[in-house]
Specification:
Rossmann fold, about 375 residues, binds adenosine-5'-triphosphate, 22 strands, OB fold (Dihydrolipoamide Acetyltransferase, E2P)
């Protein structure tokens, strides 16, 4: 495979197991986001792919070549970090030129005035200058080439860092939380710029973030990692609508997916507080019924509860409902017109779309759940 292939990579720091048997393939030209909570091992995996950290076991291939033992400088990947890592004493032009100078000129040729002596060095410097101008134009920072980083905004610095990565024309980009130093509005515009640049450049990209909305909006696929284990890799649709693990379901989506303690009796009928919710499991036992806020709606019958409070968001209304059965408060996303007719403390019933409800085992595994024939579903359907 042409992109990045990580096979059964494990990593220990002393007694701490940070990555466990991680296998991940990023196709040529694919944009994959790696998400997970702080400390789950995202940066460690990136550093391993970049060659800045060795593996304890497993292999890394880039562009069809096993690079597990290859040093970082020879891996043909470019990394963009959260802190930009620009040289403060160099101009934007010089910052972007650095990787090209390192690659295309020998140490003696990089000395000041070397270009005056050698026509071939002059030609190389000319080509580097053109490449830098092209990258700067692509990023909209052509007018800033003679400034130093201290005289740039956060967003402009981030673009310079991107320029320095792009100019190398690498076969893979690794971006580790590149937008986390930007304010909210700039994050949104810069993320669409990164996607547009990725389309133009076409290199395999792994984008590390702990921001699930960034991952959902930018990626071809998302890989969800927790405690050093890759839980699921899939398209944003698959990860959102068909999570295979409750931790994945919880991590993606805002407000978070509702979780309601449930129990399946000997016949497999799933009940919340003894009331059937219209789903049948293959086996009896405790389970978690998980429903996204937009899949819960008000009904004449169903899960009974009382409104705790309402949050008006303009385009929708979030109703926080304390369920009568069980201790949970669930959130439903309702249309904004409900604002005028609902009041805190009001009793309501909630129904959900059985085709979209998810059921998980107590150990977080997804369980198969079949909707009951509609005649038997009267309680939950409403
Ligand atoms: P964040 O989102 O906060 O950046 P992360 O998912 O990128 O977190 P890592 O930085 O990969 O997580 O760290 C994973 C775990 O490995 C953490 O518990 C961290 O303390 C530990 N770790 C990372 N580098 C080292 C090291 N050089 N020596 C010992 N432990 C380390």
């Amino acid at each position: 495979m042409d992109g990045i292939v990580v096979s059964e990579v494990s990593k220990r720091f002393g007694d701490t197991q940070v990555l466990r048997d991680v296998s991940l393939e990023v196709g040529r030209g694919e944009f994959l986001s790696l998400v997970g909570p702080s400390g789950c091992g995202k940066t460690t995996l990136m550093r391993i792919v970049a060659g800045l950290e060795g593996v304890t076991s497993g292999t890394v291939c880039i562009g069809g070549r096993d690079v597990t033992a290859t040093r970082a400088a020879d891996r043909d990947v470019a990394m963009v970090f959260q802190n930009y890592a620009l040289y403060p004493h160099l101009t934007v032009r010089q910052n972007i030129s650095v990787p090209l100078m390192m690659r295309r000129l020998r140490p003696v040729q990089r000395l000041p005035f070397a270009g005056w002596l050698s026509p071939s060095v002059r030609a190389t410097l000319g080509a580097i200058g053109e490449d830098v101008e092209t990258a700067a134009r692509m990023l909209g920072i052509g007018a800033l080439l003679d400034r130093k980083p201290a005289h740039l905004s956060g967003g402009q610095r981030q673009r310079v860092a991107l320029g320095r990565a792009i100019v190398r024309n690498p076969s893979a980009f690794l971006m580790d939380e590149p937008l986390s130093n930007l304010d909210a509005a700039l994050r949104v515009t810069t993320r669409s710029e990164i996607v547009a640049i990725h389309r133009r450049v076409g290199a395999s990209t792994v984008y590390v973030t702990h921001d699930q909305s960034e991952a959902m909006t930018m990626s071809d696929r998302i890989a969800v990692m927790m405690q050093g284990v890759l839980l699921q890799v899939g398209t944003p649709d698959e990860i959102y609508g068909n999570p295979q693990d409750l931790r994945v379901a919880r991590f993606i989506g805002s407000p978070s997916i509702n979780q309601i303690a449930a129990h399946a009796g000997p016949d497999g009928l799933l009940c919340v507080g003894g009331v059937s919710v219209g789903l049948r499991l293959e086996k009896p036992g405790n389970a978690v019924l998980a429903v996204r806020p937009e899949d819960l709606h008000l009904a004449s019958q169903g899960l009974a509860g009382r409104i705790e409070h309402l949050e008006y968001l303009g385009e929708s209304l979030l109703a926080h409902v304390r369920l009568t059965e069980g201790a949970e408060t669930v959130i439903c996303r309702l249309s904004p017109e409900n604002r005028t007719r609902l009041r805190p403390d009001e009793p309501v019933h909630l129904a959900f779309d059985h085709g979209r409800a998810l059921v998980f085992a107590p150990d977080n595994r997804r369980l198969a759940a079949r909707p009951l024939p509609s005649a038997l579903r009267e309680v939950a359907r409403g």
